[in-house]
Design goal:
427 residues; alpha/beta; Aspartate Aminotransferase, domain 2; Aspartate Aminotransferase, domain 1; 2 domains; 5-stranded mixed sheet; 4-stranded antiparallel sheet; 13 strands; 40% helix; globular; binds pyridoxal-5'-phosphate; Class-I_PLP-dep_aminotransf; Aminotransferase class I/classII large domain-containing protein; aminotransferase; Aminotransferase_I/II_large; transferase
Length: 427
């Protein structure tokens, strides 16, 4: 049927849609740019972390592994079906991009980043354990942690992401008070979801130092690494990892296709073997077709770079356009330009809790926002933040969305003012 469609009959809408999707198709073009050298550089010229801390040894990892994960045993007859060519390619890719210090590590293919998160939580967290996360973090970590009823240690962030000094004082206080110490920090270092912050190199080094000093593992979830609009080379935690304390999660969901479910974990060998045992009981291996596609994407690295650069340019244009379109909302809402990723995180002024505003007023007027609660462990706490995304909105819809936002916030502010205020004597 497609063949019979006359060219002159092709609807202009279809062409427009195709152009919208263009970045997905760029991968076939071979237009390697100079810029890709920086795109694929995730290590610092200053080198890895240098400190007084010893690398962890095989026995050390035992204290991080949850009871569940520690009780898994290899089956006599089961084997994961791996794609050796893909593993070779992934190992090389990680080596080239991150130049990790010499610690025995390996990679394992996952069904996207969320799968990696789930696997890490299962491996590292026992019921009730304390876990460090950003004060506002990706929903996917919270839903995974929920059944384990952890103690969430939410660390505030500023425009440079998680604040290491706060983390340090929280950990120091816990130590002095004899409280259970966390074994895991979950962090989205580039383009945090929801805040869009990028943690600078100096902070990464400080956080890494804290991991060594207070003895925890860093789970570095970095699906937005290729959408870093600062274009500055920032070393990954993996690239700093002299002591074998980093598990790195990669995914192509944000830059190639979420439906492909293409991700991979890079971890110290003793931890990776635990993840593999879990995988054996969970799904044996991810879809071979997806693995083959992932392999092809990585092998064609120059074409991949062209595609990634074009995706980054597209989303940067969208970010800038949304920021511009939102100027009428300035004063009603506060935000800073996200340095990476796909989200704009904003505090709404004069509204104690955005929940109703998002799910009733905004939704009824055709505007989809996410309330800040979606990024907290306890979703019942009132929150003044909303998350906007520029991943899908069309350029031509941005101004109208902004004007809806103005009226929605004004209505909500008026409603807040009308609400009877609690008296100081009331509880
Ligand atoms: C920080 C972060 N990690 C992981 C994921 C899940 O990615 P994937 O589709 O690769 O599972 C998301 C998706 O929104 C995300 O924002």
């Amino acid at each position: 049927m497609l063949v019979s469609v006359k060219f002159n009959k092709i609807n202009s809408e279809v062409i427009k849609k195709f152009l919208d999707l263009r970045p997905l198709y760029c991968v076939v073009k071979n237009n390697y740019s100079q810029k890709s050298d920086d795109l694929f550089k995730c290590y610092s010229d200053q080198g890895a972390f240098v400190g007084k801390y010893e690398p962890l040894n095989e026995q050390d990892y035992g204290r991080f592994v949850s009871k569940r994960a520690g009780s898994r045993e290899p089956a006599l007859t089961r084997q994961m079906s791996k794609l050796p060519a893909l593993l070779t390619e992934l190992r090389q890719f990680q080596e080239d991009l991150h130049r990790p210090p010499p610690v025995a590590r390996d990679v394992m293919v996952t069904n996207g980043g969320q799968h990696g998160i789930y696997q890490c939580v299962d491996m590292l967290v026992d019921p009730g354990d304390p876990v460090i996360v950003n004060e506002y973090s990706y929903t996917g970590i919270h839903v995974t942690l929920k059944p384990l009823h952890p103690e969430i240690i939410g660390i505030p962030e500023d425009t440079d992401g998680l604040i290491p000094e706060t983390l340090e004082s929280v950990l120091q206080d816990r130590l002095i008070s004899g409280l259970k110490m966390p074994k895991m920090l979950y962090i989205i270092p580039t383009g945090s979801n929801p805040s869009g912050t990028v943690v600078p190199e100096e902070r990464r080094r400080k956080i890494y130092e804290l991991a060594c000093r207070f003895d925890f593992i860093i789970v570095e979830d970095d699906p937005y690494m290729f959408l870093n609009y600062t274009e500055q080379t920032i070393p990954s935690f993996l690239s700093l990892d002299t002591c074998g304390r980093v598990i790195r999660l990669d995914s192509l969901s944000k830059v190639v296709s979420a439906g492909l479910r293409a991700g991979w974990v890079t971890a110290p060998a003793p931890l990776l073997s635990k993840l593999e045992l879990h995988m054996q009981g969970e799904l044996l291996h991810s879809c071979s077709l997806s693995q083959a596609i992932l392999h092809r994407l990585l092998v064609e690295r120059e074409a991949l770079a062209t595609h990634l650069l074009s995706a980054r340019a597209l989303y940067r244009r969208r970010r800038d356009a949304l920021h511009e379109a939102l100027q009428p909302v300035n004063g009603l809402m506060e935000w800073s330009l996200p340095n990476a990723g796909l989200f704009l995180w904003a505090r709404v002024r004069g509204v104690e809790d955005v929940y109703k505003m998002v799910f009733e007023t905004a939704f009824n007027r055709g505007l989809m926002l996410l309330p800040g609660q979606a990024f907290t462990y306890d979703t019942s706490t009132p929150c003044q933040y909303v998350r906007l995304t520029f991943s899908k909105i069309r350029f031509e819809d941005m101004n109208i969305a902004a004007s809806h936002l103005v009226s929605i916030i004004k209505d909500e502010q008026a409603r807040t003012l009308q609400k009877p205020q609690r008296l100081a004597t009331e509880h």
